[in-house]
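sry for the spam today, last one i promise. struct tokens for design, 333 residues
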């Protein structure tokens, strides 16, 4: 498909076909071209992403994929009743994870300076509503199971554990609400370009590129919290130094406000790992997937005391001046 599209609609001869994540791609004359199917994406969203990518590239981040114009003009093309965009990367380099906090800080700095109001991909201010929706759905499902005999080990574990994690979710929501009521956001708390779930490996692919179709617009605390959560679960006993270095590197570009720290903490408090495990188990279509999620839940429940310790020590690990910034802690931890 990519060879046909690039040759006929863009006038580019394809040398070497490859894949970038789930997308068809090719390398030609040292440049990477990625084919993005966009039949399910609104034109306004595509245009917004194109403007953001152009802004970030023009301000000096050459790892950002830019939108390629077809021979006939425009960034959207059609073939066989399907719509596509083609992304281009002209300066290919290998990703190095050293000073990832600094790299993320620079990316967020550019993202905050987008010269127009981002609307189509924005999740700013929506955490509370999204969290409540997820927990309410799960509570409803849990209530429906209360008077039935558990059909599996997972059913039993879910029935026993949900009240604890619902309490943790309610704590996260309350911490978030208190932050928005009691604290004042600073410049660093403006919206920026983020990822749904930023991790150590988000940019560590075959090529160091930033695909605009991976982006959302949100508070920087989203990426910082999700990176921290992933590192904790990967290195449950030895995460401390990595967390400190990451936040030191990030703040060498942009110091965080008390509002930022409290948003990061509220996000860490919300037990998304548990919520997703339960959702994935009950939506799984085969036994192997269900067994995988059951093992995950058992491990999670066995490590609940470790998670409480992590949450209790997070501000210390990141060397946050809690007293100076008047940041409240969670008493039950």
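last one done:
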């Amino acid at each position: 498909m990519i060879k046909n599209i690039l040759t006929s609609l863009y006038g580019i001869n394809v040398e070497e076909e490859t894949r970038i994540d789930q997308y068809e791609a090719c390398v030609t004359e040292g440049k990477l071209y990625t084919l993005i199917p966009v039949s399910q994406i609104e034109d306004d969203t595509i245009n917004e992403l194109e403007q953001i990518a152009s802004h970030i590239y023009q301000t000096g981040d050459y790892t950002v994929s830019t939108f390629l114009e077809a021979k006939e003009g425009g960034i959207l093309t059609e073939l066989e009743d399907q719509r596509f965009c083609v992304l281009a990367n002209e300066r290919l380099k290998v990703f190095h994870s050293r000073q990832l906090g600094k790299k993320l800080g620079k990316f967020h700095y550019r993202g905050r300076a987008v010269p127009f109001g981002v609307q189509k991909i924005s999740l700013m201010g929506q955490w509370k509503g999204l969290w409540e929706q997820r927990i309410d759905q799960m509570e409803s499902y849990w209530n429906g199971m209360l008077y039935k005999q558990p059909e599996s080990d997972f059913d039993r574990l879910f029935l026993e554990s949900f009240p604890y994690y619902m309490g943790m979710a309610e704590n996260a929501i309350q911490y978030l609400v208190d932050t928005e009521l009691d604290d004042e956001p600073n410049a660093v708390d403006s919206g920026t370009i983020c990822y749904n779930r930023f991790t150590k490996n988000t940019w560590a692919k075959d090529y160091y590129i930033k695909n605009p179709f991976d982006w959302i617009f949100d508070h920087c605390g989203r990426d910082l919290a999700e990176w921290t959560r992933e590192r904790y679960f990967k290195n449950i006993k030895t995460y401390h130094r990595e967390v400190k270095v990451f936040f030191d590197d990030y703040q060498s570009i942009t110091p965080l406000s008390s509002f930022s720290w409290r948003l990061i903490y509220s996000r860490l408090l919300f037990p998304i790992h548990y919520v997703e495990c339960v959702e994935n188990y009950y939506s799984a279509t085969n036994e192997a997937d269900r067994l995988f999620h059951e093992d995950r839940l058992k491990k999670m429940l066995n490590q609940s005391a470790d998670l409480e310790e992590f949450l209790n020590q997070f501000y210390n690990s990141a060397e946050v001046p809690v007293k100076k910034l008047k940041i409240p802690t969670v008493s039950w931890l």
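Strands lie at 16-20, 23-28, 31-37, 66-67, 77-79, 82-89, 192-195, 215-218. ok im logging off now
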